[in-house]
Amino acid sequence: MFPDSSNPLSVEAALDPELTRWMWLVKWLLAIPHYFALILLQAAFVPVTVIAFFAILITGRYPRPLFDFNVGVIRWSTRVSYYSSVVLGTDSYPPFTLKDVPGYPIRVHVTYPERLSRGLVLVKWLLVVPQLLVITLLVTSGWTAYRYLADYSPFSSGLIGVLSLIAVVILMCTGTYPRGLFDLLMGLLRWMLRVFVYAALMTDEYPPFRLDMGGSEPAAGRLEPAPAG
To answer: Which residues contact 124 (CB under 8 A, 6 or more apart)?
Structure first.
């Protein structure tokens, strides 16, 4: 059972306590097979969202199979990013699946909305602009919130990329990943995903202007680190 959350999007992450000092240098290379799969999945994400737009406009409902597919794409992309470019908080290789994997160090859940506003679906792209302005200040590029799922570089752009790089350089020098940087990076990642899920029409709940730092959602239990091996 995924921990309860006050937000439709829940992100739970555990920092791997046995991160190697050097493996982050090659994770982007090891993740290449995932990149090929994600190119296809993310290409499908856009038309699926367009179909969902018309379904919501006509019926007020997001078709459940389409919703589950898009949530799966977000899960898969987040696992790969967490492993290879954003946070780099685990050495556990991400699984090739759209499903939730309880044993993996980062998990994403989006609560299915039984009903969605037919009118709101027309203006979400406009309502999300203030969020993008804030993200522009925090992450350099507000467009990151939209292109997040297509980021295949060894490090993301902007502040989140710089902080990720600083964290793993400290790891390489000291053998310890700085917990404060992990908490901050998770807050930035969580904020971007909330904005993305709203813009992708998957919820009517407007994302809060709030940086919820740390591996766990507010008032939610923490995940235990994945077993070694």
So the answer is: 198, 199, 201
Beta bridge partners of residue 109, listed in sequence order: 10
Question: Which of 135, 154, 152, 140 minimizes the C-alpha distance to 192?
Answer: 135
Q: Which amino acid does the sequence have at 185?
A: L
At 30-89, the pLDDT tens digits run 999 999 999 999 999 999 999 999 999 999 999 999 999 999 999 999 999 999 988 999
Q: At what angle do helices 129-139 and 158-174 cross, to 10 degrees?
A: 40
| Predicted structure pTM score | 0.87
Tokens standing for 25?
Answer: 């240098």
Distance CA 122, CA 96 (A): 34
Residue 219, amino acid: A
Q: Where are the alpha helices (DSSP H) in 11-99?
A: 27-30, 32-59, 64-84
> Where do runs of H (alpha helix) occur along 85-205?
124-127, 129-139, 144-147, 158-174, 179-199
- How far from 145 is each of 46, 69, 139, 198, CA to CA, in Å? 15, 19, 9, 11
Determine the Cα–Cα distance for residues 140 and 64; give it in Å rounded to an integer: 34
The DSSP letter of residue 150 is G
Six-digit token pair at 150?
């297509």
Distance CA 183, CA 180 (A): 5
Q: Residue 168 in 3-state DSSP?
A: helix
